[in-house]
Structures are given as C-alpha cells and as structure tokens.
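Forum > Structural Biology > Help requests

Title: Can anyone predict the 3D structure of Glycosyltransferase involved in cell wall biosynthesis?

Hi all, first post here. I have the sequence for Glycosyltransferase involved in cell wall biosynthesis but no way to get a structure on my laptop. I'd be grateful if someone could post the structure tokens.
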Amino acid sequence: MRVAFVLGTTSGGTGRHVVMLAEGLLRRGHQVLVVGPDSVEEQFGFRALGAAFAPVPVSDRPHPVNDVRAVARIRRCLREADVVHAHGLRAGALTALAGAFPSRTGPQTGAPMARAGARAGGHARRGALGGALTALASALRVLASVFTRRKGVLTSRRGAWAVPLVVTLHNALTAGGLVGAVYGVLERVVARGADRVLVVSPDLGDRMRALGARDVRAAVVPAPPPRAATRSVREVLEELGAAERPVVLTVARLAQQKGLDTLLDVAAEGSQVPGERDRPGGAAGGGPGEAEGGEELLFVVAGDGPLREVLQDRIDAERLPVLLLGNRDDVPDLLAAATLVVWPSRWEGQPLSLSEALMAGKPVVATAVGGIPELMGGAGVLVPYGDVEAMRAAVRKVVGDPGERRRLAEAAARRGAELPDAEDAVEAALAAYRTSSAGEDD
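Reply #1:
Sure, ran it for you. Structure tokens for Glycosyltransferase involved in cell wall biosynthesis below:
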C-alpha cells in the first residue's frame, strides 16, 4: 500500500505520532510519503526512516495565497497514493480541497512514491501561477459544496478524486473572532470532505458528526515507550534549586490552550502545604524519610511557546514560585523528581506527556476537558477548567497526604500499563485505510 501523510507545522505530539505510524508502515513493507513544511523534516527526519518527503508549506495560520499554492502542490504530490492520511485541521482541510481536482489519469503502475516526492518541488515551481489559479477555482467549488450537501456527502468529493482521505484531528477549535470563523469553515470542509475522521476526544467526535462527517472514529494516539531517567533525583532537584521543596511539574506548550494562567493563579496563593510529606522521587512521588510540612511548593513548567514572555513577566512581578524551563529533552528526569504532575489545560485530546506521566506512575491532577477523562480512566484527580480553588485544593491535598499520593501513583501505573502502544496505533490506522478504500464500515 502507498500511504501519503500530510501535516502542517508541528513541533510536538502530532509529528511524533506520524513518525510512529511511518515507522510501523515501513516495517510492514508499505511505501510512505510525507508531505509538509521543511521544518517537520528537519525536526523528525522522515527521510532517515526510509520515507519519501515532499516539501509543501502548510502553515499554522490561514493565508489565502499560500494556501491556494499549498492545495495545488498537495494535489501533485498525492497522485500515486493509495490512501491519504492528513493530520490536523489545516492539513486536513487543504487536502480535502485538493480532492476537488480531477482523479488520477490512467492506471497506476506502482512507481515508487519517492519519485513523487522528488518531483513535487520541480512541478510546483513550473507553472506556479496557472496551478494556483486552478487550485483557487477548485477550492471555491469545494467551499460552495460545503453548504450544498446531497445525502450527507460532500458533492464534489468522490468521483472527483478517487484517493480515500482519512483525517486525524489532534486539537479542538478554541480561538474566537475572525480566526475562529475561518477555522469553523475548515472544520466543515474536513467533516464533509473526508472519508473517515479520527478524533482524539469524544467531544471532538460529536462536533464532527454535527457538522456532517459521515464516518467518525476514535483515534489511537499512544505515547512512545517511556525512557529511563539519566540523572538521580537529587541531581535534578539541585539543578532546579528545589532542595527539599515538593516539585509540581507541568509539561506543556506555553500557549493559550494549556491554561497556564490558572496554574499561576494556583501558585500565587496555593504554594504552602501543611502537614507531613514524603520527599520527592519515591514510588508515590516521594521517597524515604519525611520532613516537616509548611514548605513552599515549586511549580516547574517544561515547554516553550508564544506566551513565555507574558508568563515570565507575571512570575517576576508577583514573585511566584514558578520556573519556566523552556523545551527539555530530559522529561523522564523531571518526572522522576516530581511530587505531582498537573495539567491545567482549557482543552486536550490525548496528550502524550500525560500518557508518559501515567506510565511513569506519577500522581496527576488535571482538568476534566476533551479526552483527558477517558485517557486517565479514573487514575487521577479531575477538576473543572478554570476553577482555581478546586485545583489549588487538589494540589495541596495530594502533596500533603502521602497515602493519597501513593494511591494515585499506583492507579496511574496500572492505567499506564493499559494504554495502547505503537503496534496498536499502526494496526488501527491500517484498518481505517482498508475500510476507507473499500468504502465500507467495519
């Protein structure tokens, strides 16, 4: 089978997930082409895995001219594919728009998809204006058909482009205003243009069905096997300047979706924990020996993003006990040293870092949003998004109660052992490709 992945700008879980799928498909003898910005090849190294790569600038923000060009290039790249799997709303919508083009001409002869990737750049450079204008006309036809449905099926889809399209949506729409309106249109394009939509949370699935998606299934997005820590807990605590202080860890991109303003609110007034506690690093997030309570928590955030300066300004102005570490490649070390792991997000699908925390057997406090409750399966404390008092109380209780911490750590380890692995994800993807190609429900 010749599988083409399309993805946009990503530096995190989406790219890692595509790497996982590409590796599994290549091991099984399938041909893989990855279509996306140069930055994803630089970061994830798809060519080094044995896949072909075709550079197409799928940005993370709408841009009419660039998007029209991207649609034309995507169409050229995918002519030899047996199935197309787009990841993310932007990539999925642009690929669905590319599906408005005429179907492949003539029978396919199984030419290696590497040649498709190699040709894509040259083809895109030749006749760029003509291709862009053709793409624009086709895109407008598809957008028009989004609002002119017949029997629940995108009218321009099948019969115009014969390649089945599977789209995995890794995130929900959280923006408002004009950006939110644009993304709302893209959601409809995906819902009515894809043969199958895979979603990372039940609420996202409900939205896609309401928008007209004909086949919506749960996505299988596992975290990679956890890596062992390379440093001792004491070394990590010394680096953080934590000494004997309990460490509350958050692993997140510094962006609006992650709810880090709530975390700072918790840190502002919830950093003193009464009672006894274990030291960090043991099986329950603590270790041998006990210390007197009343010590200040240290909140540590691993990750970077557009809100770093804003968050740091508030931390400095209010003298909050919060460290912004930036991007880190030693998350296993940080997990081992953490007393508790916290997710204050506005919305999440199946965050890989949360799966990693569960597999590491760490106590978790998280917001009850998106796919988090299903992912945790009862192995942690859930609080409403934005409820600072509830999150503050949960953090204080877990850190201050060694028995509760042990219970949550044991529950997390059990849940972590139940989570799907890479083989499960590849098999689920192949099943989606086969049934989409056959036009059947499984």
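The chain has a mean pLDDT of 84. The first helix runs from residue 13 to 27.
Shout if anything looks off.
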